[in-house]
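INTERNAL TRANSFER SHEET
From: sequence group
To: structure group
Subject: tRNA pseudouridine synthase B

Please process the attached sequence and return the structure record in the designated field. Keep the field labels unchanged so the import script can parse them.
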Amino acid sequence: MEPIGVLPLDKPAGMTSHDCVFRLRRLFQTKKVGHTGTLDPEVTGVLPICLGRATKLARFITDEGKRYAAEVTIGYATTTEDAHGETVRETPVEPGAISQEDIDGILQQLTGQLEQTPPYYSAVKVNGKKLYEYARKGIEVERPTRIVQIDTLERTSEVTFEQNVCRFRIEIACGKGTYIRTLAVEIGERLGYAAHMSDLRRTSSGAMSETEAVTLATLEACETVEERMQYVLPIEQVIQKWPRLTVDAETAGRVLNGGKLSGIPVEFDRFTVYNEEGTPLAIYRLDPDIKMGRVEVMLQID
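Return from structure group:
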């Protein structure tokens, strides 16, 4: 029986998202495995992994909000904007030179919509190539600027000083496409210093948090696929908080045949259609070319 659902994986450091997918294909004995947006190799935390026909949900889960816990180091910048790159700029910090009030004020300024330029060492594509491919060859290209959403940004530790740097931890709730490395650099720039992100963990992705995430070690300790399935969330649970529309049996039949719907008032651009028995059938979206309530199928769930 094909494994179906979403696994909230607690990704370890030292593995790429693709490494995790490769390992899970073996553990669940299926080729239909997909992740929901990359985490850098040294970043740990929640990485939802879709199994079986739940892979259809991957792009929607990727669009959901994320939460992170990070450490910011003020005093020097690196090529990769994290602790694993080469130092490119140093601005020594004297003990007490930066106050907690200074930092909290900057964090408040950076809440809301923020313009970001992705780091060179990232998977953002320019002219068909990923930025890190240019960076590894020493080629400079114009990086695209994007608008990201920072919902909350708070300091969660005291500010400590040591060996010409200061460090503190933050928690971030943000939208899709936010680079926490770049956010750490921006915090430093607004304080007047070079900076980088020295540690990062994703604590939640959409409705999935680290409290329910499972490690590869735990999965590998299971003897069968059936045992591992206890950690996999069913599709119904993953999408239960998404906007929904319940339809009658006749309309449900049209949905199962992949038909578009019209004359149905909806409040959301994207929503899940359920039958009267409470079974999710498909995800729909408003047709961008027609403004009078016509909606089109994005994907069939059942």
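Handover comment: Residues 61 and 241 are 12 Å apart (CA to CA). The chain is about 20% helix and 35% strand.
Transfer complete.
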